[in-house]
Amino acid sequence: MKKVLITGCLGQIGSELTMRLRADNGTDSVIATDIRRIAGNEVIESGPFEILDVTDKDKMMDIAREYEVDTIIHLAALLSAVAEEKPQLAWNLNMGGLVNALEVARELHLKFFTPSSIGSFGPGTPAENTPQDTLQRPTTMYGVTKVSGELLCDYYFQKFGVDTRGVRFPGLISYKTLPGGGTTDYAVDIYYEALKNKSYTSFIGKGTHMDMMYMPDAIDAIIKLMNADPKRLVHRNAFNITAMSFEPEQIAASIRKFIPDFELKYDVDPARQAIADSWPDSLDASCARNEWDFDPQYDLDRMTKDMLEKLTKKLENDTVVRH
Ligand code: VAH
């Protein structure tokens, strides 16, 4: 991955992956692209940036050629809750963008990464310790695009020899960039509200277990998979990965270790609860561990400690900026 084109660079994953790859491999090692430009944003200011709508294949091809990239990391997509509100737009963007990115990778012989999700599973999937290879009949448009994307990426590997790789991300928690329209976003929002108000009202109900991961582990996983020896890979699209599985009461208990009087309340959103109920409770990540040494470093309490420390500084800076 000497020169990477990243789509959706301003998103929750893209914004951190761009900065990490530039820190590891040099400013010009990442061509960051997104559909909009945000003045003063560190991703845009720190290296090559291009406006790119991923439904515009010719523009994507031009950028890939101009910068002579060797890898595409395709992140631009609508997440689960927004996709369920706008299913036709989600299909067009998630699948249209993916086909364009795969075609550019095929024509220019590029390595390729795009994430799948625990959202690629459905109610018929074994919920506990969900196997790597199992039934995938998601009941959300997001899940339909994710399982379709997995099949398409495997097809491009088998039919055209494109070096496609992917992971099924759990809910991702980070402090740098707010998530945009996901079902697991409650697990990010709760930390902000804990610091601001010592209280949070969750839109996901008590007892709803979902797999989760802290963003540093997610970024490490992408880099580790993309650098893995292809001869070790039995699977490609996409690997189960997870660091922890918890329900709202458990993340609240972890927060109370640092903010003892934190209060958790509930106002369940039926739409997002229905999505969460259709997903597994916990994944089996043994294939990722065996085939490319996946090894997450953050458990719930270590993540909570880091999130609260980093968010405290971020919120203080934001306050300073606002004044
Ligand atoms: C979402 N954060 O909630 C994403 C992710 C597993 C959840 O795919 O849609």
UniProtKB/TrEMBL annotation:
Q: What sequence ranges are listed for the domain NAD-dependent epimerase/dehydratase?
A: 4-241
Question: A GO molecular-function term, please?
Answer: L-threonine 3-dehydrogenase activity
CDD domains xrefs: TDH_SDR_e (cd05272)
What is one GO biological process annotated to this record? L-threonine catabolic process
Q: This protein's superkingdom?
A: Bacteria
Question: InterPro entries, alphabetically?
Answer: Epimerase_deHydtase, NAD(P)-bd_dom_sf, NAD(P)_epim/dehydratase
Gene3D superfamilies from the entry?
Answer: NAD(P)-binding Rossmann-like Domain (3.40.50.720)
Which family is this protein grouped under?
Belongs to the NAD(P)-dependent epimerase/dehydratase family.
Q: PANTHER family in the record, alphabetically?
A: L-THREONINE 3-DEHYDROGENASE, L-THREONINE 3-DEHYDROGENASE, MITOCHONDRIAL
This chain's protein is named: NAD-dependent nucleoside-diphosphate-sugar epimerase
Source organism (scientific name): Listeria grandensis FSL F6-0971
